[in-house]
Design goal:
Blueprint (H helix, E strand, L loop, with lengths): L3 E4 L2 E3 L5 E7 L7 E8 L6 E6 L6 E3 L7 E6 L4 E6 L8 E9 L14 E2 L3 E5 L2
Parallel strand pairs: 2-11
Antiparallel strand pairs: 1-3, 3-8, 4-5, 4-9, 5-6, 7-8, 9-10, 9-11
């Protein structure tokens, strides 16, 4: 069974930074397109960023472009989401998800993932 485990969430002040991690223990994450999806209370899920398996090309939604960066460390079998300049629109539960894909480019708002982690809470407050 494919398992994804997120970590790195927490409380940060507006303008601060966090780095989320998504680790896989039962499969090789580099073979999958991996994304970060967030959901705030009362709002729909929003795909914020993804990175393709083939070539590892990252992509980000307009709402986070220039602030959030997704990356892979294949040696650690981990995908990261570096979040900078966090603002009051960013608090949510952030989920890591994966799908087996050979596409060179992923679109964060339209990827259909098969495997999901449990999520990690991000809170932005002064």
């Amino acid at each position: 069974q494919l398992q994804l485990v997120e970590s790195g969430g927490g409380l940060v002040q507006p303008g601060g930074s966090l780095r989320l991690s998504c680790a896989a223990s039962t499969f090789t994450l580099s073979y999958y397109t991996v994304g970060w999806i967030r959901q705030a209370p009362g709002k729909e899920r929003e795909g914020v960023s993804c990175i393709s398996s083939s070539g590892g090309i990252p992509n980000a939604a307009e709402s986070v472009k220039g602030r959030f960066t997704i990356s892979r460390d294949n040696a650690k079998n981990t995908v990261y989401l570096q979040m900078n300049s966090l603002n009051p629109e960013d608090p949510a539960v952030y989920y890591c998800a994966a799908v087996s894909s050979v596409s060179r480019l992923c679109v964060p708002t339209s990827v259909r993932y098969n495997y999901w982690g449990q999520g990690t809470q991000v809170t932005v407050s002064s």
